Predict the 3D structure of the following.
Amino acid sequence: MVNAIRSYPFEGKLPPKPVVALTGRSNVGKSSLLNRLVGRSVAAVSRQPGRTRKIWLYEAEKAFLWADLPGYGYAAVPETQRHLWLQQNIRFLETVRPVVCVLVDSRLPPQQLDLNWVARIERLALPYLILATKADTLSQAQRHHQRRILLEAFPRAVWKGFVSARSGEGIQEMKVWIYSFLHSYGKSLL
Ligand SMILES: Nc1nc2c(ncn2[C@@H]2O[C@H](COP(=O)(O)OP(=O)(O)OP(=O)(O)O)[C@@H](O)[C@H]2O)c(=O)[nH]1
Ligand SMILES: [Mg+2]
């Protein structure tokens, strides 16, 4: 059972659970990954960047809520709209303080926008994972190459992994990792 609960800013109270947020550039595969993670097509997906226009929260796990965010860096919406999305994403990080999944396209070198986003997350002292998406499209050689690049570009990520919403690669590992992380993170906050 998956409840798409509400969009941010919230009305009323949220369940008192930590939040794990899926963030990244437009079209990197956030909503597709969310659907795979919860095992149902609850979030809208599109080939066109800029599909997700609000921050949506989903209640699918016992221990935490998932959040699916609008992407950053989509050039085909007006600058003012992009700015608004970014401001709202930042406010969400500041107020909700989620564990942040930063999705990066596994076929591309680290993008400046991703590095800027990670720098913001680090300034807020939030834990973040790097998830290299669309891994089903990579050859073994590309994967090897990309692994090295990601290790160098994001040394302070608490976890890194290849994921694919299409093949399911990395999904279970990622979930197991998040559960165990929240377990110890929750304790460390006490
Ligand atoms: N090959 C492959 N394509 C994928 C995968 N995940 C997503 N895609 C494709 O990437 C495109 C964008 O997917 P979305 O999930 O809508 O991306 P998003 O990051 O939520 O995009 P915005 O909401 O616009 O920011 C779609 O055409 C998906 O079919 C994957 O694991 N493998
Ligand atoms: Mg989306």
